[in-house]
Amino acid sequence: MIALRFRPIAIASALALLFAPLSFAKSKAKPAAKPSATPAAKPTAPPSPDWQLIKVGSRDYLSVDNIAKFYKLLGNVDTTGKTVVLNNGRNQLQLTLDSREAIVNGIRNWLCFPVIAKDDKFLVSRIDLAKTIEPQLRPQMIQRAGKVQTIVLDPGHGGFDKGAGSSFGSEKMYALDVARQLRPLLQAKGFKVVMTRENDVFIPLEVRARIANATRDSIFVSIHFNATDANREATGFEIFSLTPRGAPSTADDSLALHFVNMQAGSPVDAQSFELSAAVFHSMLGHIPEFDRGIKRARFAVLRQTKIPSVLVEGGFLSETGDSKRIADPAWRKQLAESLCAGIENYRNLVEKKQRPMLVAEYRAQAAGEITVVDLVSPPSRLDSSPAPAIIPVTNPSTNATPDPNREP
Ligand SMILES: [Zn+2]
HSE (CB half, 13 Å, CA atoms) of 288? Predict the structure, then answer.
């Protein structure tokens, strides 16, 4: 057990320190800020009593104790001493030493950098805190998200590009069908819908991005299905948003420095990440597929779109169970419904600052349990209930990830 005591925190000044150095991605400066010789993580704000930055090599970290204190979370360490669970009954964060795998509010997340230990403290990189953890623990702090009036649906592949396939059918057909089923659901919720393709035609990736960028007040949702030769048993859902600047993508196994390049991020990467979390909670909340996590990638459609964008992978055509389910139009309708609910939750976040539903809330709703979710006000007290169950982490090397060099 970690003993943690709490005191009132000057949140504004704390945030100034946390985000000021990361303003390359959030500032009013032009999108796709040019790589600069100055290290991205150089603090420019005055020291804050709330965040104690710890430098390890060239990277800034924050201790798990510091994170717990800031977000008013209570900590428990499991018996191995390697996994810590922070919880306050409203937010839950599970972190594992030497791992990039984290569980945030019941959903798997892939951090950019592993959790490390120094002087008996668990440390989380500042980029992960700012880009992955903060948007989920306080989604209502979302900034500059714009309006969400039009959904650009992008069914992957098409024409000669069949994408992945199973003995039942091809990715290009399934993706188009999900988009076609999703369109009227979104329209019924008051959204406008633009499709990058309506038929079985080939559309280059840059044209898809151009369509998205030409659509005002919009978000971009690319729909794909997975396949891998590396592990025929790989199964489940995953969702991608753009890798932040200065960080490796999830599929970059090595954390060697050459992966930590200075490719441009996106001025809306926080919004894209929040969209991916809102949609992914809904997908898993509606359909009990394996949770492969929220991932980062620099796929062309994510890189080239200037609006909040995500890429959904709706299961594996290379796996028997997944491929049978995907072949069922009624299952694909369920997938479309889950995407619609997630997108609607994102709009509620942007327009009403209403926190998106979490996977457990969707499941409780489906089970007919009444959930009263206080979405805006902070917790009035710390939850002293017993420690939450620890979700076993998976080893990415035994849970094949598709070839990162292949466009999905
Ligand atoms: Zn694909």
Answer: 4
